[in-house]
Task: inverse folding
């Protein structure tokens, strides 16, 4: 499996495997075809996260995307109104 093909739950499982110290980090990386840099980046990003935290973060990210889109649309409407008022 390539690095980009892991979902958040799979990443958490790999990190938990390392926490249990069943294998060395090098062995875990080799088993999952990961570079050590990827492993450590994941560990930094997901430190202390639970599946519930990940679900909540995903919801927040979706809401942020929606709000950014709404803001961009509002800004566009304001620019159009300014342009129309400037022509009169």
Result:
């Amino acid at each position: 499996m390539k690095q980009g093909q892991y979902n958040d739950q799979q990443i958490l499982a790999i990190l938990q495997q390392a926490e249990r110290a069943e294998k060395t980090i090098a062995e875990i990386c080799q088993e999952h075809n990961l570079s050590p840099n990827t492993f450590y980046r994941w560990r930094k990003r997901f430190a202390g996260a639970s599946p519930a935290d990940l679900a909540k973060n995903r919801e927040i990210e979706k809401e942020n995307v929606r709000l950014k889109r709404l803001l961009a649309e509002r800004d566009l409407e304001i620019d159009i109104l300014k342009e129309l008022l400037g022509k009169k």
Notes: The chain has a mean pLDDT of 89. The longest helix spans residues 51-87.
